[in-house]
Sequence to fold (673 residues):
Amino acid sequence: MRQLFENGDVVELSERDALGSICIPADTPIADIDAEQLAQSVLLLEFASFADGRGFSLAKILKRTLPPSTQVVATGTIIPDQLELAWQCGFDSAIISEELWLRCGPNNWRAQL
Amino acid sequence: MYQYNDINQETVDSRCREFRDQVERRIAGTLSESEFKPLRLMNGLYLQLHAYMLRVAIPYGVLSSSQLSKLADISDKYDRGYGHFTTRQNIQFNWPTLEDMPDLLEELATVQMHAIQTSGNCIRNITGDPLAGVAADEDVDPRPICEWLRQWSTLHPEFRYLPRKFKFAITGSANDRAAIKVHDIGLRLRKGTAGDLLIDLWLGGGQGRTPKIAQLFKRGLKVEELLPYLEATLRVYNMHGRRDNKYKARIKILLSEIGLESLQAQVQEEYEALDKGPFANSVAELKALYSHFALPLIDIVQQSGPTILGNEKLAGHEVQRWYKQNTRDHKLAGFRSVMISLKPAGGIPGDATSAQMRALASIAKQYSRDELRVTHRQNIVMPWVAEKDLLKVWQALVDGDLAESNIDLPSDIIACPGMDYCALATARSIPVAQDISKKLRETELQTDIGKLAINISGCINACAHHHVADIGILGLDRAGVENYQITLGGRSDENARVGERMGPGLSADELPATIERVIKFYIKERHDDESFSLAYDRIGKAGFKPAVYGEVNDDAGVTA
Fold:
């Protein structure tokens, strides 16, 4: 796994949940997210498909309701071209699989950071 | 008209670089076709029946002469010497190659044009009244708001992967020429009692397989409320909108599924919760846009001269017919808006050759302050022509084969590309339009008829707006045979409504005679100058249906 940051940092992770965080589908209605999930210091939103943009709106809503210290992370199926949108919608970082990192090309991911 | 600032230009230039990179990655294979598809669609690039098709945005239909000249050059260099103007006021090129696309987009960028968001599940090109800023009947010039929303919606980070495409249309006149009630969101701009700008938001209109007329969703928004309210609306739609079935993904379906009051309440709740901070400067930005759209300071006395209609030497001359049919009242005394028909006899509706584009650009440069408009009926407007120049303009249009006097008449047919180009089409629409328009001209029917809209779509997606035409024609495929359904009584104006389907479909061969019968029936039955839709209201489906199916034999010479 790789964790990508807007400032250009790329951090290798042995597994996605190494951060000790929990992951909820990015298409979860806001009302279905429970208090325990909202209390996490890191919240992963998993995109089932890069073509489904619900996670961008969900991040916007979460970032205005959660404490500023809570990290909201995009994961699952996204493409390099979406990183810029993710930052603008409030995501703090993105975590992608090694397979996705290689298939889309490390240069293409780095070019978007 | 609006001129890009440095930020706008850099946005478009960087998008060109980005798309060049994406095309290279697609060719290299690091982007799969399924990953490339939404990216090319966000740049207006479709894969059609025979080739790629590029749709270039013409924001709210406004074009400069130099832009139109560039489109002519592009059609010669990268296409086959013509372009097709669409019902969303855009232009499409039917034959570019993927490899040429980055260069083509760079050429467009040199005249402040692009193909961003002309496709894909995002906010599409904002459309508007083609007579914006010049119409005599206008309450509010909608162009500054159109431009403001264009800037807000272009590359909006949150709304690039919506459930489905999202279309805005805007009018500032009680006479709706922008078809706002068949858009996802239609805005009607008006003046409040204190002269302040108020905005009525209509939501949930659309065509396609489930035609809906928009509902009044929010009345009287103040200008400072508009952007956050739209942001709230799009956010609620994005979170709700279905991804499992694209035919149920438009906001019109969400509106009917959860109901007007519930959707209004959810949008209101989001509106109140969202951070207004990012919008703090937006009204100042809007105000800065007004200078781009100021009325020109013109010496009216200089502009006045002999009028076409008042000139006895021209009595009965073709130019008088053209004046009545193809020019419109203007906000400024001494001026007319000139409409140019792209529906010549036997022509392809909405097509213009590169030579015609250059002729239009040159005439507009000399006589229309360098400006043209594209209408959603696939015609062109020169919005600033002085009365004294009209005869010269008409002569120049005649020389350019552009003086067909049929605006709003039955042969001014809207047609989609249909099976001749489109991968979605189930039937041909262009040849059908050509046959019908020939028939109508043969019989000299149209001068008697007056205003009447015939719209022909080649599939259920209804790109040619057949649901909201006086006479709508929908081409389907029935076991490998083209079959055309007729709807009557639709309209797309301020009293928009969906037409009624008459019954079983007809073959392409039967259509010209069928349309002729329906029109003759209307002429025979109408009271004085009663419009088609009012006559349809009064007579009803049962009255019109026999005319559709040739079951009447009357003194108008109709035979079964």
About this structure: Chain B has 17 helices and 20 strands. Residues 368 and 385 of chain B are 5 Å apart (CA to CA). The interface with chain A takes residues 18, 21-22, 25, 30-31, 35, 38-39, 121, 157-162, 235, 238-239, 243, 273-275 of chain B (CB under 8 Å). The radius of gyration of chain B is 23 Å.
